[in-house]
Amino acid sequence: MFYLKKTPFIFKVLYPKCYWSITNNNNNVFLTFDDGPSKSVTQKTLDILKENNILATFFLIGRKVLENQDIFQKIKDAGHSFGNHSHNHPNGWKTKNNEYLSNIEKCQKAVGAKLFRPPYGKIKFSQAKKLLPKYKIIMWDVVGGDFDSSQTSEDIVKNIVNNTKSGSIIVLHDSEKFGDKMLIALPKIIEQLKEKGFNFSPICL
Asked: Rounded distance, CA 59 to CA 117, Å?
C-alpha cells in the first residue's frame, strides 16, 4: 500500500486554506483519531488518553455517532475536541459535489462541529471552496499507517515519532477495523513523544 508518512509541501501549497499543521510556541502536537466512534476501540482510546492526561481530537462518522451516542458523549465530557468526518466516508474525488456536501451536512446534524476532515484526505477544490465558509478543514502532516496491514504496531510508533515536529497533526484511527494495532502503539507514541519534549493539545480553532 502506497501512502506518504509525511505530507509533502506541495500539498500544502495546493490547499493553503486547509490546516496541515498548527504553528505554536509551546511545542504542541495534535493527536487525531478518524472513523469512530466505536464502542470498544474509542472507549479504550479514551482510557489511554485519560491515563496520560492528554486531550486529542476525534473526527467522527455521522452514522457511527448515531449508533454510539454514549461514546460520543464521553468524548465531549472528557474535554476532547471533535469534528465532522462525513456521514459514511465517501471519497471526495469520486463523488459528485452535491452528494458529497449532502453527506457532510447529514453528519453535521449528528455531530455539530466547526472542524471537518475529508475522508481519505481527498477533496476537490470546488468542494473545499463550498465548505470553507462554514468549517475549518483539518488535514495532517504525519500518518501513522495503522490502516496498512503490512505495518506492525512498532512500525506505527516509528512512523509517528520519527516524523513529528512542533505543530504536527498526527492521524490515527479508532475504528474497529484498524484499532488493535493502534491501541498497542498509542501508549508508546505518547511516551516517546513526551520524551522528545512534545506536549499534546486538542485542535481548537
From this structure: 7
| Radius of gyration for the alpha carbons in the chain, expressed in angstroms and rounded | 16
In the chain, the amino acid numbered 159 is N
DSSP, collapsed to helix, strand or coil, labels residue 62 as: helix
Return d(Cα 155, Cα 197) in angstroms, integer.
21
SS3 34: strand
Contact 142, 160 (CB under 8 A): yes
Q: Which of 34, 35, 146, 174 is catalytic?
A: 34
Cβ neighbours for 47, distance < 8 A, ≥ 6 positions apart: none
Has this prediction a pTM greater than 0.85?
Answer: yes
Which residue type, as a one-letter code, is found at position 167? G
Active site residue 173: yes
As a whole number of angstroms, the distance between CA 43 and CA 23 comes to 30
Cell triple for residue 199? Answer: 506536549
**So what's the pLDDT on residue 105?**
98
What whole-number distance in Å separates Cα of residue 95 and Cα of residue 159?
30
Options 35, 146, 173, 174, the catalytic residue? 173
Decide if 85 is catalytic: no
DSSP SS3 for 184: helix
Phi, psi of 82 (to 5 degrees): -150, 160
Provide the β-strand partners of residue 200: 29
**What pLDDT is attached to residue 3?**
60
Residues 6+ apart with CB under 8 A from 56: 30, 31, 32, 33, 49, 80, 81, 200, 202
